[in-house]
């Protein structure tokens, strides 16, 4: 067996382990591998100084790939200018197809230096870590901030940011840059026209949807092609009904977790939206952009989403829309957690591939992103909070972001942050998301949805090829 055959075999082995290699693509990927070449040659680092704490080679170039989604790419281009003021030039690329664009490069060993691993085509970070494709970011955490040499990066991050980037150990592999508030988004203007308030109980929700229906307005729409968006309201709804330990059991793949009474009640409640005709017609076949556009047009009152939506939907949002977010509507007074309970967490993940040419440069770019200039720029450009404490203080916030900040403040300690979407991406997005999609389209009843979710979770728990996590 020659060197090319060995390379080909190792390539296929790595791709399969990462869950990156689909059967139809195998021929193309293996033919690329057998051609020789590929792989990054590490550049030598620079001298570590007070001004260059990570030891960046000041002449070396840097490559950054950004997910061009709800936050766009301008904030990154602005950070490039700061980087280039002291170091080498930055090669920038932006795409919505992170996995399609980058998985062949990761498999071949020549990834970019920074990846904004986000969107519907995000790569499975847990698998990348297991295959030693992601660089630990602890050197970044222990570096001084750009603005205060006596303060470490780790000391300015919002609580939970470091934990969110850890996967079964003490090392942080992923920097979740934005701080996202998930919930039920709506137009205050639309509610005012109906002369209703945001519903705090499910009976109130059904009453508001019924009134909207009489006016030719749907109660809800959602990203039917990306049904995991429903988790943004469904997961905290489950926690409200049954308490935070229900989500903990789901995260830990505990037997019977999805059969908890809180899950059944949540599924029954959401299914009632379908059964009563409160879902915008055609919703199961549209994506996030299309659903947001229909919502902006006043075709539906409510949409499950995250706080990136204000920037992502700004081109179609009317000037008088008055975008707002609220915690998911409670079931009733028997709920274990208060109405103010919300899902909020550090999000929008960035990683530095371990086989990148310029690992120190990649970390330095992230250090720049965590500086005051970049965090303020990000918030003002895309109407989103960052993972840096107090970074938005004193800034003039748009209506949606101001609302998100108020919701987060009102929640206090009642903030939940499930991990299933980080730890078990396929289970969360495709299997659980697909099951909820089928239920909301009326293809299955809530009881069957519960059964399917539990079966999929059990299959994942028994799959020895999937690394398990626990909280």
Descriptors for this entry?
471 residues; alpha/beta; D-Maltodextrin-Binding Protein, domain 2; 2 domains; ten-stranded mixed beta sheet; 20 helices; 10 strands; 43% helix; 12% strand
How is this structure best summarized?
The protein contains 20 helices and 10 strands. It is α/β, with parallel strands linked by helices.
Word description of this protein:
By secondary structure, the chain is α/β, with parallel strands linked by helices. It has two domains: 9-24 and 43-177 and 348-396, D-Maltodextrin-Binding Protein, domain 2 (3-Layer(aba) Sandwich); 180-345 and 414-462, 3-Layer(aba) Sandwich (D-Maltodextrin-Binding Protein, domain 2), CATH 3.40.190.10. Helix content is 43%, strand content 12%. The chain is built from 20 helices and ten strands. The chain has helices at residues 3-18, 26-34, 74-84, 98-108, 125-130, 138-141, 161-164, 188-194, 202-214, 231-242, 244-251, 261-275, 288-296, 309-312, 359-369, 372-382, 399-411, 420-423, 425-440, 446-462; strands at residues 62-67, 90-95, 114-116, 175-187, 218-220, 300-306, 323-326, 342-351, 385-386, 415-416. Strands 1, 2, 3, 4, 5, 6, 7, 8, 9 and 10 form a ten-stranded mixed β-sheet that branches. The radius of gyration is 23 Å and the shape is globular. It starts with a helix and ends in a 9-residue tail after the last helix. This is Carbohydrate ABC transporter, N-acetylglucosamine/diacetylchitobiose-binding protein. Keywords: Signal, Transport. InterPro entries: Bact_solute-bd_prot1, Chitin_NgcE, SBP. Belongs to the bacterial solute-binding protein 1 family.
